[in-house]
Amino acid sequence: MSSSPGSGESRFRRSLKRYRRNLAQFGRRFARNKLALASVGVIVALSAIALMADILYDYEFITTVQLSNSFKSPGTTAAVTFRGETFDHRYLLGADNYGRDILGRMIHGGRISLIIGFVTVAMSLLVGGVMGALAGYKGGFIDTIVMRITDIMLSIPTILLSIAIVAALGNSFFNLLVAIATSMMPRYARIVRASVISVKDQEFIEAARCIGAGDFRIVTRHVLINILAPVIVQSTLNVGSAILWAASLSFLGLGILPPTPEWGNMLSEAREFIKYAPHTLLFPGLAIMITVLAYNLIGDGLRDSLDPKLKR
Amino acid sequence: MPRYILKRLLMLVPVLLGVTFIVFSLLHITPGDPALIALGPNATPAAYEQMKKDMGLDAPFLVQYKRFLLGYKHEVFGYKGLLFGDLGRSYVTNRNVFEMIMGSFPNTLLLATGALLFAALLGVPVGILSAIRQYSVLDMVSTVMALAGVAMPVFWLAMVLIYVFAETLGFLPSLADPRNPVSMILPITTLGLYSTALILRMTRSAMLEIMRTDYVRTARAKGMDEHLVVRKHALRNAMIPIVTVIGLEFGALLGGAVLTEQIFAYPGIGTIMFKAIGEKDTPQILGSVCFVALVFTVVNLIVDILYGFIDPRVKASIQSSKSVNFKVVWNEFISRVRRK
Amino acid sequence: MDTILEIRDLSVHYYADRETVQAVNGLNLSLTRGATLGLVGETGAGKTTTALSILKMIQEPQGRIVSGRILFEGRDVLTMDRAEIVELRGKEVSMIFQDPMTSLNPLLTVGEQIAETVRKHDRVSKAEAASRARAMLETVGIPGGRAEDYPHQFSGGMKQRVVIAIALACSPKLLLADEPTTALDVTIQAQVLEMMRSLKEKFVTSTILITHDLGIVAEMCDQVATMYAGEVVEYGTVKDVFDTPKHPYTLGLFESLPSLDEDRDRLRPITGLMPDPTRLPPGCPFHPRCPRAMEICSRLSPEPVRLNGHLVKCHLYGKKEG
Could you tell me the domains of chain B? Predict the structure, then answer.
């Protein structure tokens, strides 16, 4: 096709069209991935339940000990005394060793897990992303320093690093967040750096620089758009990992301690009673597994639909 | 080759220094005063000051770090330093930290090696089979199992296995003892299953990717029998990322062992470390974490060097000591592993 | 004349994302023993798919040969069982792939990669195969001593020579060369083509040369077939087709080339793009781009017509129908 007047604009239109088509294609491919779609449903449902935790179960109620109802089986109804009143309560998933409602504790624990997942990913993405972007974009000395730091952090097994951080900073919700976010940070630094390096020498960046765009503008407008895909995929997978790590740390007694309900510490409490009350063990574990599995499936699905070359 | 290995070992030094520095700094800010713990709450201020001085806690941070590496001279609390294989004495038991670690680490190594063997022996063949018979029943089942395996918390799996095999069926003990092979079955399975899932998925996707390469097509076009195409052409190439992931998994297993040991009351380094964390026994924590990190790093280095024997491209760049090329190849594998 | 290969009504489909890609649609082709046939056409015309079909190497389940017969020396390749097909590949029919950079196994020495095909087909000892591999390397102009080297130690042109050595190691009767020089520098291209021509004389191999370079066809081939959207639209001797191209698509290909003989102000490319192979237009697939399209072209697929020595699939030359 020979060049004609106004081809600049038509080129713009075409690229916009292509962008929309890519987006639509991505949507179609993702929608075809039944597992990923179902996982989105699972996560939406779990998040909705977690957000409604206070409506569904009174926090004070699920942290109040009802010794007479210890280890009630799932589905049993028993009398409880709460705020001076006595009434019948149905334990849908049974009661734990202190007679507290397991389902209610799981829902409130789910809310904490959700918060942990998102906050830690946001924290590590912010710090690690900026580090990686700087390293990749500036190169040279900064790059060397950042990469050495990630090398060092990656040479401590992740769980060990988190344990060491919580152990050092002390048990608290915030320190748990810091520990998990720190452990994930080098991953982001690496991914963002690699993506930045792979796009920074491409021609459109050169072109942007030629028309006088500054560093900040280039990074925000051109580079960021192009590294979004791997970062989104990694973040989805990381939410799952963060929930898993938080549960592991709480299980070990680092992080969130009872009576605050958290899936990991619920399992830790259930541990001594495996023999008598397997249901106290079963449900929180399933909750962790289903949540993590769903995030993993969404992450895989996103990756496959964003980059179909990697599939099959 | 020896020159290359030496070079890589030298490159290890700054990394290990960094690791020890990070861990040391972390524990430096840990609340809890060892001098106070050592003396008990009824100590006089003078005795407390003296104790602090004796333990070397009054010195500036960097001086303390230097002592940790190079040694601290004191009749009671002195030690030769990390570089000389002496990490001081436990505040709680007063036993030599390094000896404690050496006493328990073989157990952890046994557990992690067992789990790695379990994972590799199960994950690699099943991964290969499900790649060759893509979309078959085996492929579907193994994919679902692998997905579930990665999402499952290790400690929960451990407890479920204990419930089923120890509490209900009663034919396996729920406590692990390194001297009793039967008691090792549950912890090894628990720890190994997570890695099995990862190794399986990695093997499958590496095989699938390589089965689609041009050189496999060339091999087919040459009239090679399919089993030769798989074994000689695809598998050998797939082994590179597979070995990487197995190597990396070994490190992860050392970390995961911490959790598994806790549940099975297994006398490994994780148990020691945990006890130390509970007791704020700084030298013991410091020593254990640094030691595990050291082993982890060395294992990664060994995996690195192993490439040289599998991949002629890497071997060539090693021999011409152009480690730049090597770095590229390595980073490519790492990113591939991360992606999966 | 002795026909070594005959393809009848070959159709190959690929299935991706619930769409069916009609890569090859009712293709007919025959090749005389000892001749070189040029298969030309745009990217996506189905040239590589046709070649892979001859080796029965369409990867299932993504791709499937839907219909047709491929007769190699009278035997239908598509009905052969696994053992027979493995004997055919590399021994009687060999293929050279487009990209030499990725066509060699990085972990095996080039000598080993040549030797294994010799060992497989000619059942000789390891040492014998190795010495034949070295001899084969020398035939393609590489010192035999380099047999112990790995692919990464060779340049692109050298790698393609190795690929050719592998393909010719067992003196196949038919060689499929899929754009053997596209990935190479122009100067190297000429060397490789020159070598292929001399080797062809030496081995008396029939060849199908896939290319989109009409210059290479003129240099190397006896016959030429133009492919468009999975069909052969024009087929004949190079002389006939080049002197008097009949099909509007073939004409278009020639007109879009710069010429040294004629004085042309401007190249005349064929307007439009290849049709989407998942949604081929009804009738003649070329009609949306054809400057001489008629009403009938959008309705009816043309039958091949024999015109002084070559076949053309176009309504311009057929019996006009109501």
Answer: 102-282 (1.10.3720.10)
